[in-house]
Amino acid sequence: MEAPRVLYEQTDHVVTLTLNRPEELNAFSEPAMIEAFLEALARVRDETTVRAVVLTGAGKAFSAGGNVKHMRDKTDMFAGSAADIERAYATGIHRVPPVMDALEVPLIAAVNGAAYGAALDLVCLCDIRLAAPAATFGAPFVKIGIAPGDGAAWFLARAVGEQAAAEMLFTGEPIDAERAREIGLVARLVEADRLVEEAQALARRIAGNAPQAVALTKRLMRAQRFQTLPEHLRLCAAYQALLHGTEDHAEALAAFFEKRPATFTGR
Questions:
Q1: What is the Cα–Cα distance from 63 to 17, expressed in whole angstroms?
Q2: CA–CA separation, 187 and 181 (whole Å)
Q3: Taking the CB of the first residue and of the last residue of the chain, which one, N or C, has fewer CB atoms within 10 A?
Q4: Domain end among 167, 187, 207
């Protein structure tokens, strides 16, 4: 039986998703991989016990991004006319970013190796990004005569600023993990043998907080991209009003005054 393209493992409130085609460097353009990833995201979204997610890759790469052999051979999503290719993007890989961005649980990238092209978009869509020292990051679209096709010009500029994004996108040249840390693409570097463990530990720390509060905090971080300050403050007030009435808020206050750890139920 064929191994799952995306491994889904849950321990307590933390899910680890692993892109699982190491022999293909976890290429991320084939419909089967995209569907498997979307199914995993839907499972995360619908499972109320999940409070944080770690995303990593099996083998030596996080993901090599789009399959360049398929580009060369004009197969898979790169087959047919211009209209066919445009439709393949819209009905395939372009379904991933909105779903991933809309998840209300925090996503942590554990970048174990190369993250190129579409995989760089997956990394940028994560809320917190850790990397092994040997990890590399690239947006080599112009090197193969195409433009950023999956949102990199949008995601990368927001992750690292327009100048650093422009350098990566216009040169198409990869950067190493240390440079990625310098420009803010990753939060910190962790030795490869501890990378996933460290990401999971961070996920557990997040999962230990009141889940509704974490979810609404993430909503606020997403909303501020397009809001004026007065609009944002109104939304803050509305969310605070909701959270002040939750059982978890009452439990947090009780635990604070009783000098004990809080136990949150998501209610």
A1: 13
A2: 6
A3: N
A4: 207
* Structural element, H or E, at residue 63: strand 61-63
Compute CA 104 distance to the chain's CA centroid, rounded to the nearest angstrom: 12
Tell me, yes or no, whether 266 lies in a domain. no
DSSP 93: G
Contact between 66 and 180 (Cβ < 8 Å): no
The C-alpha atoms of residue 73 and residue 70 are separated, in whole angstroms, by: 5
The contacts of residue 224 (CB under 8 Å, 6+ apart) are 232
Q: Is residue 222 domain-shared with residue 167, that is, in the same domain?
A: no
User: pLDDT digits over 224-250, tens only?
Assistant: 999 999 999 999 999 999 999 999 999
Distance CA 105, CA 212 (A): 9
Residues ≥6 apart with Cβ < 8 Å to 118: 28, 29, 63, 65, 66, 93, 149, 150
Residue 23, amino acid: E
Whole domain around residue 40: which residue ranges?
Answer: 6-207
Note the pTM of the prediction, 2 decimals. 0.93
Asked if 136 contacts 115 with a C-beta cutoff of 8 angstroms, the reply is yes
Q: Give the CA count within 13 Å in the CB-facing half-sphere of 78.
A: 14
> Do 25 and 83 sit in the same domain of this protein?
yes
CA distance 93 to 90: 7
Q: Are 161 and 182 in contact (CB under 8 A)?
A: no
For residues 6 and 22, the answer to whether their CB atoms sit within 8 Å is no
154 in the same domain as 102: yes
> Any idea what the CATH number is for the domain that residue 165 is in?
3.90.226.10
When divided into structural domains, the chain yields a total of: 2
pLDDT per position as a tens digit, 151-204 = 999 999 999 999 999 999 999 999 999 999 999 999 999 999 999 999 999 999
Residues 149 and 168 in one domain: yes
